[in-house]
Amino acid sequence: MSPGRRLQRYGVPGVAALAVAMGLVGAMHLKAARPVLAMLGVPCPVDKTTAEQVSTLRASGLAHLRAERLAPARPVPGGFVLDGTTVEEATRWAHESGIACDDVKHGYSYLRCRGVEANKLRLAGPPVSELWLSFGPDDRLIGIDVYRRGMSAGDTTAAWNGAAYALRNVLGMPTSTVGDASPEALSGSPLQTARLQYRFADYLAVVTASNLPYAGLAVREQYMSSRL
Fold first, then answer.
1. Where are its TM segments located (predicted)?
2. Do 167 and 222 touch, CB atoms closer than 8 A?
3. Lesser CB count within 10 Å: N end or C end of the chain?
4. Beta-carbon-side half-sphere exposure of residue 53 (alpha carbons within 13 Å)
5. Which residues pair with 173 in a beta bridge?
């Protein structure tokens, strides 16, 4: 089975929809993800795009992901508030926390931060390789993408369990799960993947553990508002 076909077994259309729903950041803007997307025929998003175009694409992506029931809560790392935290507030948080972030503009506004200590986001496990904060047209937070790669077996377990338990304590059992997130299973062959999802009318959360040939054991946490 080819790498592309193997990854498709784990819901690549859903991953693409998720990236679009986050405003074309998430998986699509991380360099480590581009080789996989290329194998699947997913083009790298263009830099010259408008907020209106991103909003249209985001609405299309959310149409494939949203459920009917409202979330009882919308937990996110770091104490941020979806549809509440502003770009200015997030920038101030980064400065006060000693975190270096880049301002990125791709129709919407984003903060891209690297090498963030997990405790600064109130997370378990090792430092965060890359953090994306996505903001909508009103410059309020609509998505958080936490990505850790090149981890040991113990760190992978800590990152996965920390995210999974935090969500389960607030929201109960996931909407769906696939794969085995144990480091032993992930290390069995390249592109092994496990994923859990929570899908509501106003909130989406996805935690993915992977064994990537160019990044080793990796865990991605994605949290977003699915309000339109």
1. 12-30
2. no
3. N
4. 9
5. none
